[in-house]
Amino acid sequence: MKRFLILQLRPETDASDAEYASILDKTGLTPDQTHRFRLDREDLPEGLNVTDYAGVIVGGGPGCVSDDPATKSAVDARVEAAIMGLMPQITAQDHPFMGCCYGLGILAAHLGGEVSKDRFGEPVGPSTCRLTEDGMKDPLTLGLEPHFDAFVGHKEAVQALPEGCVHLLASDPCPFQMIRWGQNVYATQFHPEADARDFEERINIYKHHGYFPPEDAQRLIDICHAADVTQPREILRRFAQRYG
Prior knowledge:
Layout: E1 4-8, H1 13-27, E2 34-38, E3 55-58, H2 74-92, E4 97-100, H3 102-110, E5 115-116, E6 122-131, E7 147-154, E8 157-158, E9 165-171, E10 178-181, E11 185-188, H4 196-205, H5 217-226, H6 231-243
Parallel strand pairs: 1-2, 1-3, 3-4, 4-11
Antiparallel strand pairs: 5-8, 6-7, 6-9, 9-10, 10-11
Helix pairs in contact: 1-4, 4-5
């Protein structure tokens, strides 16, 4: 069986390791069924062919696609360039892809869509998503509850559906919560790998990164633990099951 390529962007080791563990937990994959790269500290092999893998999963991170290139850190710029360098292969071959949070911005930007901080940013915590008509028919979302909570926290968002994409999930604050390009290329604005424990850890790690006032950290942690977030993990499980 081909492995899944897991691309991670978080420069904080504790956050990166916890995210990887969550991806394994929600997909049901084992470490030997994945090939993990921390793009903040290692380069992808030259000539990497995405079809050598069952699929590609991209995690989240503190960077923003829409930031002025002149202000991006060297790490953020390198991470973005590495993933953008794979996107032509992925879309040309309609290769299985799941971009989580940051991955939606990458996919939309690659397809020529607008990603910015103008509208649709969401505070850290649970957000209620709803299936669109197309979402009710897609293999990854078919049969999910028509409305469900997912964990979000982002400064930027896709401003309009990129040409050729199918809109699967929406929310009131952020209309583009999940999209599909072709038949196999997916991306979510929310974090399908995350549970309340993950978000508690991330809130503590990123409380000085401008997502929220630091003094709100405990309040947000309490909100996350009070939320009922169960459906998003099913999307990741189905992705791994369908393409594994």
